[in-house]
Amino acid sequence: MKKALVLSGGGGRGAYHVGVIEALVERGWMQDGRGPDILAGTSIGAINAAALASGLTVAELKARWLEMHTEDVHRLSSDLPTVSRPLVRFLMRSVLTSEAHGGSPAMLPPEERKMSAEGLIERISSVFRSRPFRSMLDTTPWRHTLSRWMDFERINAPDAPALLLTATDLQSGDLRVFCNRPLRNHPADTITIEHLMASSSIPTVYPWTEIDGRKYWDGAILANTPLGPVIDLAAREDVEIVVVMMTPWDVAPEVMRQQLQEVPQDLVQALSLTLDWALLASYRTAIKTLRAYNRLAEAMHKLERAAQQTGNPDLRIEGNIPRIITEPLVVAPQQLMPLEWIIDYEEHNHRTLFEMGRNDALRALDNRLLDRLLDQP
Q1: Pairing with 197, which of 140, 167, 352, 367 sits 20 to 30 Å away (CA)?
Q2: What is the total count of domains within the chain?
Q3: 218 is known as an active-site residue
Q4: Over the chain, what is the mean pLDDT?
Q5: For 34-50, what is the mean pLDDT?
C-alpha cells in the first residue's frame, strides 16, 4: 500500500508540520530523509513537502526553521503607497475601534466625520491606482531562503517521491496542480523555485508569480488540503493518507464554544475565524465528495456480489468497479491558532508549534491504532 502526506497552508504556522513529520518518523510511518510515496502541499505545506522531497531529515528541517526569521521571508513592498495621516486616523478611530476600545466617531476631527464609507473606499482606491501595485510585502528574501533549502535535481529525479503543489490561476480562477509525475493526462512538470513561490503567493499580501505566461496566487484559495489530486495520482492503487491541517478538526462542539466565547470579541478574532473557516471549507468539501464516492463504490460492489450469487446478468456492472478509498487520518490542533502566527517566523513560535504538531500527531496515531484493535473480531 502506498502512503501519502498532505500538508495544508498556513504561513508561519507551518512549523506545526515539522512536529507532525517528526512523530510520523518516530512511529515508522515514513522514512526519515525520504518521505512517503506521495507528498502534496499548498502554500507553506508545498514548501515543507518540497523540503522532504529534497531529502531533508527531520533534524535538518527543524534546523532550517529555527535559523529562519521573519526578514528571511518578507519585507515591506515598494508597491505600498504612503497613506495620509487623516486617512490613517479615520481608519483607526472610526473603523477599527469602538467605545470598548477607547474610541468613538465623536472623537474624529470635523473634516473627517464627513467621510462616508463610499468616500473612504474611493480615496483608498485612488491612492493605490496612482502607482502600480502587486503586493503589500516583498518576498525576495523568501526566494533566497528557499533556494538554500531545496535540491531541485533530487526533487525531479525519477526515484523521488511524487510531489504535488497547488496554485490558483489568477486570470481564470482555476486550480493548477503542478506535479513531478504525469497527472490527469498532463505531462510531468519540472518543479522549480517558481512553483514554490506560486503556491505560496498570498493574494495582495505577496506578489503573484508568473509561470509559462500565466500568473498564479496561493493554492489555498481553492484547495488548502489537496486531497483530490492525491487520489487521482494513486489511481487504482490503495493509498494510506495522512492530512495535516492547522485548523481544529473533529473537536467537540462544546470545546469550540468555550474557545470562541460564542462570538468574536474583536476585529482580529473575527478575521482569524474567517480565515480558519475558509481554509477548512475545501477539506470539508473534499471529504464529503470522498464519502459520496465510497457510498457509490460500495453499492456497485454489492450489485456485483449479488450478480455472482444469483447468476442474474442484469445486475452485473460493466467496466471497472471503483475501489473504496480509506478515509485519511487527519492530524489537527485541538485549539484555534492565533492569527499572528501566520506571519511570525521566529524561534519561540517555531518551537511551540514543533511540540504541538508532534503531540497532536502521536495522539491521532494512537487513536487510529486503538480503533483498529477494537475493530478486530
Answers
A1: 352
A2: 3
A3: yes
A4: 83
A5: 96
